[in-house]
Amino acid sequence: MATMMLTVNGSAHTVDVDPATPLLYVLSDDLNLRGPKFGCGLGQCGACTVLAQGRAIRSCVTPAGTITGVEITTLEGLGTLEQPHPLQQAFIDEQAAQCGFCLSGVILTAKALLDQQPHPTEAQIQEALASVLCRCFAHTRMLRAITRYAQGR
Amino acid sequence: MSIISDALEALARAACSRRDVLKGTGALIVGFSAAHMAAPLGVAQGPFDTRVAHVDPRQLDAWLAIAADGTVTASTGKCEFGQGILTAQTQLVADELSVPVARVLIIECDTAVCPDQGTTSGSQSTPSNFNARNLAQAAATAREALLQLAAARLAVPVEQLTINDGVISARADRTKSVSYGELVAGRQFNMTLSATAPRKPASAWTVLGQPVPRLDMAAMVAGQFEYVHNVRVPDMLHGRVVRPPAVGATLLAVDETSVRDVPGLVKVVVRNNFVGVVAERQWQAVQAAEKLKAQWTAGVGLPPQGEFYGYLRHQQPSRDMFVVNSKDVDETLAQAAAVIKTTYLYPYQAHASMGASCAVADVRSGKATLWSATQSVYPTRSGVALLLGLPVDNVRVVYRRGAGCYGLNGADTVSYDAALLSQAVGRPVRVQLSRRDEMAWENYGQAYVIDQRVGVDRDGTIIAWDYEAWSPQLGSRPGYDKPGNVVTGWLAGFEPQQVVARPASDVTDRFRNSSNAAPSYVMGCVGGACGGAGTVRSERVLSHTVPSPFFTGPLRSPARLQNTFAHECCLDEVAAHVQADPVAYRLRHLRDRRLIEVVQAVAKAAAWEARPSPQPQWRSTGLARGRGMACVVYEGDNGYGAMVAEVEVEQATGRLHITRFVVALDCGPISNPDGLRAQIEGGTLQGMSRALGEEVTWDEQQVTSIDWQTYHSLPLGFDVPRIDSVLLNRTDVPAAGAGETAITLVAAALGNAIFDATGARMRQVPFTPERIKVALEARRS
Prior knowledge:
By secondary structure, chain A is of the alpha+beta class. Chain A has helices spanning 23-30, 75-78, 86-94, 103-116, 122-128, 139-152; strands at residues 2-8, 11-17, 49-52, 55-58, 71-73.
């Protein structure tokens, strides 16, 4: 166990964990965050995605000890229930989810892409989302929401 | 945020203790039918019937409470899995009681307060709760009761009263008015459900039938929704399980010293062949599960996958069943001008939920509380009681949403895991399955081998249809008394439901097509009554259920999808043989008006060009384009669907591009058209993933499709085809299910489109590029 500082959603947190602990468990169990979720624990599906300095990473395979000093943003840090981020709002407007379990992967991966590439082509969106899963297959609406947000900026 | 943070708290807010309800008795005035109980072993999705338990569903108070502030709290046994039923049920109650959606609070699937409605599955939530019984009838009963109370209070006859926004007033004098809150003020109705209280006609709906946005959407999108994975209770520990290394392996010994140095380890738990670890922290539990040395016997050995379909045909024991048998099929086929013979193959497929399953259990002092994403809170309550040796009344199961399950995923088994581990340590335990735990030990959707022989006369009209299928089964839903039907119960020592040999006997009572084993084109004549959708009189449908090496259970459109793939492609083969247009040929053999109308609607929307398949300009090289269609009466009576798929096939590589799906659906009166579209879109694309890539694989000892690299689900980045939905809203018939109709049609429509494009027939799912190449080669030879 080791004491470490994490900056998550704009707040500093001190946690006492084994530095090898995947970041996901720290976010879920120590910080009680609900956005990032355990999908596969293998970095294959995207459910645990968080932004690290704006880059989408898979928190289930990222040891917590490797991201001290890195600004982490989870799905709940993007916007609030009352004031969702415009990308989140686009998902609400398009009703772009069914069970919602995949949303961290979909929204945050899209966010990282759109921050880098404000007006991506369809092929670029597809490439960015190539290893993100949604098993309810709400794809049609999700892609529409991403495009809506990209076009509306 | 959760929609309902705690059901008991919500009821307390409604100033109504559900415990008082328990004392309620009363004559049975509403029939709670045991629908679909006759479904064949292994594909049973239920139970679906609403049962009398400690919450008596004959009592209005079991369903509805009205608080002094006018809030309507409704309890339901049909819960939200992502399909939109929470919002739709809220609309139903709001509409029936003329209150805004925001004033209705739904409590879902908590055995402390909700009626026992069996399982949320099988496209049965809408038929159960939106027709003249259960939740819908409770709301209608409440409205009638409120009108009578108001009539007495205001001294105005009921027929001169009107309801607006939860306030009842005299039509002639609106100053004479009283609100629901004033009338009821948190007291109980203390009455039975009325069998005669009229539902609002669809023409008077203002909330139901509207595209009301999902009530849970903002919380999900904001990352604040509470899933079962997010449930945290005081003093909670973390557990993981250690499953056997091979199918059929049994435990010889566990070396607890192997995990002695894992920090935070609380206990290694062994019960029969069940092994689990409990630790203070989740990561510690993961490490302990990985490090624990356990000795197991060798597995039982698995049949080679390459020969599996042939193997299935010879498995014993076999439980055989006729769905229909006119006893003249062999003679009629012998007289036919031509007989088309086909064999269709369908693999085991996994639910493969996004989230590996999770549950939290608190078993202490002879009582248990489970937070579970099970589809079956009451059956799970009974199963947990059996597993733990507790009286069923001492177990409470509280539904919390998991990842979309699409049927019997790991939610039930992980609930048992959590219960066993919590009982062993006497503290609350949260269990998170690993991806491998989830996918290697699921109750898979069943594999199928389907032989068909279809005879046509000289005019090309079908005169006989013979169907014979083999499908493996082991376990299934645990129901109320079979915890061994899922892996944890079995490991803990409970027997799964096994196939018992039974010869097929004559069908005598009525035609039941709840598994869609009979094609839509047969008459379905039993005992003088014909319940089939088609015109073919000579008909035989025989199924063989045989033992499975793996656990099986309902996966979205269980058996219905596999059967429809075989029927609808076979029909297409026959149409091609007689050089008939596939749409016209279907219509020629259908007599069910609603099925005919969805076929016509989809053909019109797709601008279907009437001609035989394959397409006349087809060449054996280059890019080929085609279209295919399929239709079904889901479960024989639970919704009508038709689909057209448009595809391009790269014949050099076998790669398939799907350019468009057109889907027409008739599920009776539509509760929420946007929700229905979402189900059509998601079902269609999930069906596409299942048709193109998904297949459970195994070696000599164990399942090898255990993650997203070995089990091939289409990711978000694939080339998503356009989907056009045509909704046929019928308000003169009962409301039917809609969550499984579209997915049922996809493999068939795609197979038929590939044939139309290339002249190559796909008879085995999934349609991988390699298999498409093989079919293209076979066409040349």
